Structure formats: structure tokens, C-alpha cells
Amino acid sequence: MPKSPRRRQASAADQVVYGRRAVAEAERGRRRVTRRWSLETGTSVEELTRLASSPDHQGVVAAVEPYPYADPTTLLGREDALVIALDQVQDPRNLGAVCRSAEVAGAAGVVIAKRRAAQVTATVAKTSAGAIEHLPIAHVTNLAEWLEAAKRCGAWVYGADADAEQSYDTLDYRGRVVIVLGGEGKGLRPRVAANCDSLVSIPRAGRVESLNVAAAAAVFSFEAIRSRRAAAEPI
Q1: What's the Cα-to-Cα distance from 223 to each of 47, 73, 77, 102, 175, rounded to whole Å?
Q2: CA pair distance 103, 79, nearest whole angstrom
Q3: Domain 72-232, CATH number (from 3.40.1280.10, 3.40.50.2030, 3.40.50.10320, 2.160.20.10)
Q4: CA–CA separation, 234 vs 24, rounded Å?
Q5: Does pTM top 0.85 for this prediction?
Q6: Cβ–Cβ < 8 Å for 161, 197
Q7: For residue 3, is pLDDT > 80?
Q8: Angle 57-109-145 from CA coordinates, rounded to 5°
């Protein structure tokens, strides 16, 4: 059952989400929806656009509690945890698209940096189609140090590098796995790349140099699903 959208009054600390799917998932998710505006309840298009700070609201806007970032130390708790770590991804639409793929693929969570990186916003919620309401997202002060800690927890850390010789579809995705993807046009920073067990690429057949980070996240996430299912099949 969806949560009541008016369990308490909206406060200045609340955030806004907009778009039909983003609002619907917020009502099903962890955050409390404190107020909802829509064309059906008589709010004008102009007012919805003002509330959302975007014309892409699809006729519905909601006020929700602040996003509850996850504890980064908990993401690798499962023995088969798959985590997507982002190195200074600054475009909120890319972050939202990464989160959508990660949630659909059953990833344990996404790790982002606290600085020089997109944080969870209304744009991220809209682009993720509400996936952020169900997917743990943790932010860390130092991504390279978190990767070191992940390896101490038994995780294999694979970094995406368009020039790497090893292909993404040759990896062993069983057990705890962290996939590290770099920022738009920059790739992985040297220290982050150095803390990966392997650097791998997605083979290219066309003329464009590489996929963007959101497309790459989808490729890695669903290859992990395919590989794990294949490994579990009886010989």
C-alpha cells in the first residue's frame, strides 16, 4: 500500500521530486511524502513548473524527506554484492540513469563521491524513474580509500578503461564485485585506477570512442547477471 502523502507537514529540509514514475516510487519507497501537487488536484501547469524548477514534471510534483544516504560500509555485506562506484560523475542525468540500471540489475548499491560529483537531486530521481527510492546510494570522502577497504572485505574491484586490453565479458563476476566507472570525458583518476584489481574495456566496433557512463553501467550490470546465471547452471 502506498504511504500516506500527508503524514506530517512539509518542512524547509524537504526535497522535491517530480514526474509520474519518480513520485509513484517515492510513495512506495523509504522516504515519507509530505505533500503532493498535481493537475488532478487543481495545481496549474505554471505552478508545477515553478515547484519542480523544470517543465518535465508530467503533471505531478511531491515534497519528500531528504534522501537517506546509505552507510558505505554496509554495501558489501552480501556475499554476492554487486556495487557500482562512480569516480566524479558530475552529470545528474547520468547518475540517475546509472542508478536505474543498477537497481533493475539487483545491485547492492551505488557509491559516489561527496565532492566534485552529482548528488541525489530531483533531476536524478526523475532520470532514474524512481529507482533511487529503492537503491542504496552511499557517498564517500575518498573513493580510492573505499576501494581499498572493499578489497579487504573480499571484493574484486574492476575499473572501466576504454583502452584496456581485457574485455568486460571475460571477468569472473561471482562473489563480491565492485565496478568502477569514471566521470564524463575524464575516465578514472590515477589513484582510483591503481586501486582496481583489473582495468577492463567494452569492445568497440564503431567510430565513437566510448559509451557514456550510464550506458557502460548498464553493460556491466547486466553482464554480471548473465555471467552469474551461467556460472550457476549445471554442467
Answers
A1: 43, 25, 21, 12, 14
A2: 18
A3: 3.40.1280.10
A4: 40
A5: yes
A6: no
A7: no
A8: 120
